[in-house]
Structure formats: structure tokens, C-alpha cells
Amino acid sequence: MISARLAARPLSEATVKMHLNRAMAKLGLSSRTQVVAAARESGLLKPGS
């Protein structure tokens, strides 16, 4: 299964930050708080989870 193989690969903190920053730039967001708010508004994240 592809997702299991990807989950088993360790990612550096720098790699995660780079991808997060690129996604935030594409979405026009400037903070992780805005990312959470946008995820809730879109239904990707349910309150309390």
C-alpha cells in the first residue's frame, strides 16, 4: 500500500516546514492558525479533533 510506505519514511523537520510554507503561500495564508481555521471552514477538520 502506497500510504503505508510513505508513512514509514522519516521526514526531516525542515522538509515538513518547507511543504507547509509552500502550501500556505499557495493558499494565501500567513500562519498555522489560519491553516487550522481554513481546514475547519472547508470541512477537512472537525471541531474537537
UniProtKB/TrEMBL annotation:
<dbReference type="Pfam" id="PF00196">
    <property type="entry name" value="GerE"/>
</dbReference>
<dbReference type="InterPro" id="IPR016032">
    <property type="entry name" value="Sig_transdc_resp-reg_C-effctor"/>
</dbReference>
<dbReference type="InterPro" id="IPR036388">
    <property type="entry name" value="WH-like_DNA-bd_sf"/>
</dbReference>
<dbReference type="InterPro" id="IPR000792">
    <property type="entry name" value="Tscrpt_reg_LuxR_C"/>
</dbReference>
<feature type="domain" description="HTH luxR-type">
    <location>
        <begin position="1"/>
        <end position="43"/>
    </location>
</feature>
<protein>
    <submittedName>
        <fullName>Regulatory LuxR family protein</fullName>
    </submittedName>
</protein>
